[in-house]
Amino acid sequence: MVIKGKFLGKLLAGGMLLFVSHLFAQSNNWEHPHWENQYVIQENKMPARATSFSYREVDAAVEMDRDQAEVKFLNGDWKFNFTPDSKNRSIDFVRTEFDASGWDDIKVPSCWEMQGYGTPIYTNDVYPFTPNAPFIDRTNPVGSYIKEFTLPADWTDQQVIIHFGGVSSAFYCWLNGEYVGYSQGSRLPSEFDLSKHLKQGNNKLAVQVIRWSDGSYLEDQDHWRMSGIHREVFLMAQPKVHINDFFVRTPLTDNYTKALLQVRPEIVARGVSYDGWHLEVELLDAANNSVLEKAMRAPVKNIINEWYPPRDNVYFALMEAEVNNPRLWSAEDPYLYKTVFKLLNDKDELVEVRSTKIGFKEYAHTSEGVFTVNGEPVKLIGVNRHDHSDTGGKTVTREEMKKDIELMKQFNINALRAAHYPNDPYVYELCDEYGLYVMDEANIETHGIGGKLSNDITWNPAFMDRVIRMVERSKNHASIFSWSLGNESGCGPNHASAAGWIKDYDPTRLVHYEGAQGQPMHPDYIPTNSPKWGTNYYRTMANPTDPLYVDMISRMYPSLEQLTTLLNNDYIKRPVVMCEYAHAMGNSLGNLKEYWDIVYDHPKAAGGFIWDWIDQGIRAEDEDGTVFWKYGGDFGDVPNLGNFCINGIINSDRSVKPQLEECKYVFQPIVFTGVDLQKGIVEVKSRMNFVSTGDYYFRWSVAEEGKELRNGRLDDLIIAPGESQTITLPLNKVKIKEGKEYWLRISMHHKQATLYSEAGFEVAKQQFLLHGAKEKAAVDFSGAKGLSYTENETTVQVKGKNFEMSWDKSTGQMMDYTYQGTTYIEKGPMANFWRSQTDNDTRGWKSHTAAAFWKDFAKLSPEVQLEVDQSNPSYLNLKVTQSYTEDLQINTIYKIDNKAQVQVTFDVAMSEDMSMPLRIGSQMEVNDDLQNMKFYGKGPWENYIDRAFAAEVDVYSGKVDDFVFHYVRPQESSNRTGVRWLQLTANNGKGILIKGMQPLSTSVWPWTMQNLTDARHINALEKAPYLTVNIDLIQVGVGGADTWSNKSKPIEQYRIKPGNHSYSYSIRPVK
């Protein structure tokens, strides 16, 4: 369980940081500007505090509508001037008389690169400048801003604070020509006291933002590097005696049936007597009813003049009350209370009100490493979320934030890692309200220089500042279960000191940091300079466990085998979490289910966070009006890592990708298992930890090859958390026809609308094959009568009454299939063993090298032999033998009857010593008029053999384009597995039907495979004069561990073994 430390007050922590900064400053000669000096983190910036607003009316505070608070938003148009080089920057614009009428207008918040100034840069670990900390050895752009405002009339005689939600990466602030302060740290608020600089009437605010600073060395995350005032700016007014901050804890007791409401407020008095003043704290339930018999009340003087003991430490709570039977907060039941803080003067008159939402919860782990919430074992089903908007860059609107959280809930995701920096406060509010477990992460990453700065004491104040400010701002959010010390910054005493502060200040959350690995004092530790280190680490991913200052054993991108080894490591007694896994770049996220089979099975596996949530593409439009998305290098940005930022499970515009559908199924909170399907017996098991199925109903149906025959609904199936029930469905009335397939589908739905879904929303599902069709010949041949066969030096031709087909004798390829005067197949089927490279293929296991033979297969010229056999009265038999090497021969057998029905059999004789092909299949060029597509197989979304658990066998229809999925960088796409038949028709209803003698893997593209391979963006895909139709026996999986090593190769069961393969399908006209 979490070890609870002593409480260290905020003032003590802040004082320590200031003392250390001051100590370092004495040894520095200050020859460099603030933004190239690690000793200068800020000037005049106010201490961090929890997010809250000052109200003057209780009702407004209870409603928590910030528009009713003492707030003036400065979002909107500002005057802006861009200076490409900081050497040419000027601060003349701060003067009150400066005329900025010639400057541009810019929206705030925004990133100036998205407004046409400077260059957005996408890079991963390579710094955008030559590393020489703390100096910036690169041209450093500067943006200067001016905003004029008038102070509200009733704000006189109050303290007025300006709040910058996020500025990248460092900035100075002036008001009315007077210097206000300096700040750095791009992802946390900066607040300054403007009171002494304000004047009646018009006020002139001037801000100068420096793109790169010494703080940028701590911000080397894998994302777009953009600049400017990218989060909200507003003014806040608060009385001279005001509630400045508060920290609320809710320790649970008596087997989680009771709780203490503990409050540690901070009140600030600015030169005003507070004798006789009091603070009252009320607790309200979700209906705004009082929970406590009477409000907690404390004299302000006792709060301001708190006594600290000379030994041990001060008790956390300055105000405390017991709460009986609180409704506990969890991601499944995110019940929130409100704490309302009322500041009363010596006449008991209301001076100020503040409020916050809280949840009664406990985060911990057992002595055996099981992660628990409120005492129950919980799996973290998470994603890594970057701030990204395809139109705003790092500036994300509140609507986009809300869309993110709604989608996560809709697709059974229950956890979010703030990768790799604190998010906007609104994200945490949404997570509290909707129910997501949050790993908040400090804005610290030094990937490009490893752990250098973590081991440099001169950088300790910067590390501490970022961690402390993160915790202080978000400490009251129920959703936050963990504070993460940052990402990929090595390991050293600066991380250890930050962890120590957190453990003392907030022992109610778990400390996380993936970089904290190895225990040097452990007898089984292997030094990192030992030849054994690499081999041992690759096998075990542990050395042999992690430093004690982290509460979770965190790893990135383990293989399935590595994860299993890690979970079985007896040295590890802490929860194991994959802070990043399933690198979802391009067409990826294969074998997700296999990861979660392990996680669900092992108590010590806490879960993981997919990398990552959203494709970080930037929306663009070409001269023809075609929309596409740009990535690294498309802006001339140097350095860049190309499309390595395109690895989300939702698209850049927040539309759903097929990968997200797979997530929803793998993560669903209900498991359906067939016990005796013929009798309709199904087990229903709940994976939920806190709520029953009482708020859900179940639906079942039986379909015959796409036609629903029977259905029913179960409204009263109540399954307790973690329990299961066996149900019997009335399937005895379903009449089974031999030769047909029958499918049982069962699903769970919301009875009522929720914050993120309508009533009836489907949460979980399962499809079962009730009865499979017995194998039979794909074609019922009608005879060979009337067929003619001719050949010349170059061509073989077969004709029937109303159709004809021809073959090229030199290549063995079918040249056409024409029926009633219309050529439906213009070329093919041609043997195909390759695919347009996915990102995992080319960046990861490098199939273009590992399977180079198959890449170049289409360039080979085989020895060809054609044989025609007319001895069978049912069909004409044409056999094409293509001999490529001693190791590879392909026999294609065409059986043709007089009704234009063709059975195609591919027999591939392949040596087992050959490299792995990427598919066993054939490709055809089909008449472009056949744009109406219908198939019976797994769908409706794209699926591959290692990412097909969510897809369902059914009949789907639409236009060809409806079944095409676009990846930002074009690559293999739009496949469907388990296809029984595929029909393509023109608008007149005529076309072809392709039917497999076994399930097929198919795709239809409006472009060529070569075009798909060569294109770097969607707008480079050119509509071909024909459709490319792939009819495969099998295609290898897409893989899903990472995108840079051999782990990206599909796992064993989703590979193709070199050797002999055979499959058949038929082609017939649709009249």
TrEMBL record:
EC nos: 3.2.1.23
Keywords linked to the UniProt accession: Calcium, Glycosidase, Hydrolase, Signal
Limits of the Beta galactosidase small chain/ domain: 797-1068
Record-level GO BP terms: lactose catabolic process
One Gene Ontology term of the molecular function aspect: carbohydrate binding
Signal sequence, start to end: 1-25
Stretches assigned to coiled coil: none
Protein's UniProt keywords contain Signal: yes
Cofactor: Ca(2+)
An example Gene Ontology CC term for this record: beta-galactosidase complex
SMART domains per record: Bgal_small_N
Catalysis: reaction(s): Hydrolysis of terminal non-reducing beta-D-galactose residues in beta-D-galactosides
Enzyme class: hydrolase
Keyword Calcium in record: yes
Family: Belongs to the glycosyl hydrolase 2 family.
Subunit field text: Monomer.
The protein, known as: Beta-galactosidase
